[in-house]
């Protein structure tokens, strides 16, 4: 990739990568750091990266940088030990957006990433697999499990409305 192609990639994809990372961690400063690290990685490997695959490379690098940061900061209980039924939301409350964001925050990081990429960003299963390094069936399973948890967490829609 040439310098001009690198600059074009920055102009073309920086907003999308920024939004993707910000939706996952909701911290603008950390998001900016991750984006900077991502473009630094791209610059260091710009001679090796094919311009036609730069979008996939950027999202993969951002995803892996985000995962690394999240793992370093993670001080939570193991998700396998949590009984989600005890944490579900079924009270009468009408701010669906707030409830949904709380539910998404409770998802394990891999499930949160793939469901955000699929439902918020609109990527195909294949693209998500390329970005995350998962197979297409694995992506589908993670999305299924995430949506199942979200449905259980939110509870019956009639209670909310």
TrEMBL record:
The keyword Lipoprotein does not apply. The keyword Transcription regulation applies. Keywords: DNA-binding, Sigma factor, Transcription, Transcription regulation. It holds the Pfam family Sigma70_r2. It comes from the Bacteria. SUPFAM superfamilies: Sigma2 domain of RNA polymerase sigma factors, Sigma3 and sigma4 domains of RNA polymerase sigma factors. InterPro entries: RNA_pol_sigma-70-like (IPR039425), RNA_pol_sigma-70_dom (IPR014284), RNA_pol_sigma70_r2 (IPR007627), RNA_pol_sigma70_r4_t2 (IPR013249), RNA_pol_sigma_r2 (IPR013325), RNA_pol_sigma_r3/r4-like (IPR013324), WH-like_DNA-bd_sf (IPR036388). Coiled coil: none annotated. Residues 10-75 form the RNA polymerase sigma-70 region domain. Residues 98-150 form the RNA polymerase sigma factor 70 region 4 type domain. Belongs to the sigma-70 factor family. ECF subfamily. This is RNA polymerase sigma factor. The lineage of its organism: Bacteria, Pseudomonadati, Bacteroidota, Bacteroidia, Marinilabiliales.
């Amino acid at each position: 990739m040439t310098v001009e192609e690198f600059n074009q990639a920055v102009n073309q994809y920086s907003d999308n990568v920024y939004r993707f990372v910000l939706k996952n961690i909701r911290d603008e400063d950390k998001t900016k750091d991750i984006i900077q690290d991502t473009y630094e990685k791209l610059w260091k490997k710009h001679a090796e990266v094919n311009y036609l695959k730069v979008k996939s490379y950027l999202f993969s690098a951002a995803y892996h940088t985000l995962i690394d940061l999240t793992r370093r900061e993670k001080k939570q209980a193991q998700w396998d030990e949590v009984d989600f039924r005890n944490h579900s939301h079924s009270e009468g409350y009408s701010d669906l957006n707030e409830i949904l964001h709380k539910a998404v925050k409770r998802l394990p990081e891999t499930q949160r990433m793939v469901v955000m990429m699929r439902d918020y960003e609109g990527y195909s299963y294949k693209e998500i697999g390329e970005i995350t390094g998962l197979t297409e069936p694995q992506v589908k399973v993670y999305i299924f499990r995430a949506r199942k948890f979200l449905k259980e967490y939110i509870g019956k829609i009639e209670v909310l409305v």
